[in-house]
Amino acid sequence: MKIQDLHSAFLAHPSISTDTRKIKENDIFFALKGDNFNGNTYAQKALDNGASLVIIDEEKYLIDDRTILVKDVLTTLQQLANFHRRQSKAQVISLTGSNGKTTTKELINAVLRKTYRTIATKGNLNNHIGVPLTLLTIQPDTEIAIVEMGANHLKEIEFLCEIAEPDFGYITNFGKAHLEGFGGIEGVKKGKSELYDYLISHKKSIFLNADDPIQKDKLSTYTKKFGFSSEDSKYYTIKLLEAQPFVNLIVENINIETNLIGAYNFPNCCAAIIMAKYFNVELSEIKKALEEYTPDNNRSQILDNNGHYIILDAYNANPSSMKVALENFNSLKKDRKILILGDMFELGESAKEEHQNISDLATSLNFEQVLLVGENFYATNSTAVRLKSFEELKVYLVNKPTQTKSSFLIKGSRGMALERVLDLI
Q1: Which of 7, 31, 109, 185 could, after both became Cys, cross-link 120 (CB 3.0–4.6 A)?
Q2: Which residues carry a binding-site annotation for ATP?
Q3: Which residues are annotated as a binding site?
Q4: What CATH fold (topology level) applies to the domain 301-424?
C-alpha cells in the first residue's frame, strides 16, 4: 500500500494505536517491535478489539484485507506522519534541549492556545515513535503544532527534523544530559544544535535565548531569529524579579507571577512569551496563560505533605538540572531544608565524577540533612547519608521519621521513582 493510500485510510479513521490494551473502535494499529515484544503477534487481538486496520511487517501474520503488510512498520509510521504533516497547513514549532523541554512545551502551548488552535506533544512522547504519533494528531483546523524532540545520541534530532519539517525551532539549553550517548558535553552541543542546523539550512525561523552564549554565538550571523534577553537591549527584554519560590517576571511593565519555582524556569517562561509575541498574542492573554499554568507529573511540584513543604522534582535529573535545583533550594527562605537525591542515569564514564560533584555541592550548602540514594551516590566520598537503594532509604525513613516540620527537595532520574518517598515522610 502506498503512503498516500494509507493516509486516505487514516483520514477515514484518524486515530493510531500501538498498544492493543488501549485500542479504540476503528483505530489503525501499528504492530511495532521492541527488544522484548513483537507487535505482529497481536494482529488478531487488535482486530478483535476493534481496530479498522493492522499494519504488520511479517507475512505469516496476514489475516485478511484488514491487515496491511509493509516492509517495516516503524518506517511506515514515520512516513505516514511526514506525509500527514505535509498535507497540513499547520505551522510546526519544534523544541529540544537538555533540560526544561516538556515544561517549555507546555508553556508554549498554554500561551498560543489562547489565540490559536494548537496541538502539542503529549507527555514526553518525543522520540522516533513519539514525534510521528504527535504529528498524526494534527487536525484539519490545527494552526500550530508544538513538537518536542528528545535525543540521547548524535543524528537523532536531525532525523526527527526530517520527519517533522519544522517551520520554527527553539533549544532550551545545552546541559550534561545523556553524556553516555553523546560522548560528552561537546557531543550534547552538537547533537542538540542539529535543530538549528536544519532550520538554518532550510531558511526557517529560530527563537533563541540571547542570554545563552552558546546560542548567541551559534546564531550570530543568522538573520531569521527572534530572541529574548534580560541583558541585551537588541533583543526583546524580559526581567526576572524574583523566584522565592515562584518565578515573578516583568515584561513591558507588566508583572507576571507564575506557579513555577526556581530561576531555572525563567527562560522557559521567556521562550513562551517570545513565541506568543511573534504570533501576536495579546500580552494580557500571555499573562493569564502563564499565571494559570501549574506544573504536575513530578516536575517541580510544590506539595504539602503532613505539614512538610516539599518540592517534588522526581521526573528526571542530570548534573545540570541537579546543580540549579540545589542552588535554587539553597536560596529559598525556608527552615530545616532536607535533600533527598537519587542517582542520575545515562552518564557513562562521567558518572563517578558527576555524582561526586553533586555530592560535594550538596554537602557544601547549608542543608539540615542530605540523603543520597542509589549505587552511584553510594560510591561517592561524602559526609552525607548514603543509601544504596530505595529499599534502604525506606528503612532509614521509617526508623528515623522527620518529626519537625521541614522543607524537602526530592530529585532523581526517572528510574529512581523517588515520588515513592511521599508515602514515607
Answers
A1: 109
A2: 97-103
A3: 97-103
A4: Protein-Tyrosine Phosphatase; Chain A (3.90.190)
List for the chain the helix, strand, coil content (%; round to 5): 40, 20, 35
Q: What is the DSSP string of 325-336?
A: HHHHHHHS--SS
Which of 185, 192, 181, 183 is closest to 346 using CA atoms? 181
> In the chain, where are the structural domains located?
3-72, 88-292, 301-424
Q: Is the peptide bond before 245 cis (omega within 30 degrees of 0)?
A: yes
What value does the CA radius of gyration of the chain take, rounded to a whole number of Å?
23
Residue 138: name the closest of 178, 203, 92 by CA. Answer: 92
227, β-bridge pairs? 208
Residue-wise pLDDT tens digits, 286-299: 999 999 999 887 78
Measured CA to CA, the distance from residue 293 to residue 270 in angstroms comes to 14
Alpha-carbon torsion angle 28, 156, 300, 252, nearest 10: -100
How far apart CA 329 and CA 207 sit, in angstroms, is 29
Distance CA 238, CA 287 (A): 13
**Domain 88-292 = CATH 3.40.50.1240:** no
**In terms of pTM, does the model score above 0.85?**
yes
Fold entry, domain 3-72: 3.40.1390
Query: pLDDT value at position 293?
Result: 96
How far is the C-alpha of 53 from the C-alpha of 38, rounded, in Å?
Answer: 17
Cα–Cα distance between 404 and 238 in angstroms, integer?
40
